[in-house]
Amino acid sequence: MWTYSDYLRWLYRTGRPNMFARLQNRFSATLFAWGVLPRRVAALGIIGRRTGRLIWFPVVLTEVDGERYVVSMLGTNTNWVRNLTAADGHAILRHGVRETVHLAEVAPDRRGPILRQYLRIAPGARPHILIGPNAAPAEYEQIAPDFPVFRIEPEPTRTT
Question: Which among 65, 62, 20 has a CA at the least distance from the CA of 39?
Fold first, then answer.
């Protein structure tokens, strides 16, 4: 018998979303962008490194010590992380309102508490990050290099 965790793992069984997951993500990103669901979710828009088009992803916003963060639940080898790197961290968040932001990667030695909070509020990520939301801090430190975390900052003003 399949569980919900099995279903979530199936959506990303190759480390990338399958066709059904892509459709589900597109629908979720639209809902999140409209601001329909709780404040902790949003749509993240990043310019594609190959297409040059704005691509939207549903994300969970994690707050720790008054700072907001975005976590890659599938690790470092995801398209949105590679697109973000190519875009030098420039992105757009939408949750009812559009916010131009810069996402700054957090050093692995500072990710543990953020990953812990992320797993507490993002049950859909739990099958992909194989420790529990109440695991010991040392366990989070151990997996931290495998899961990129980005601090959401205001977009710096550009001078010409």
Answer: 62
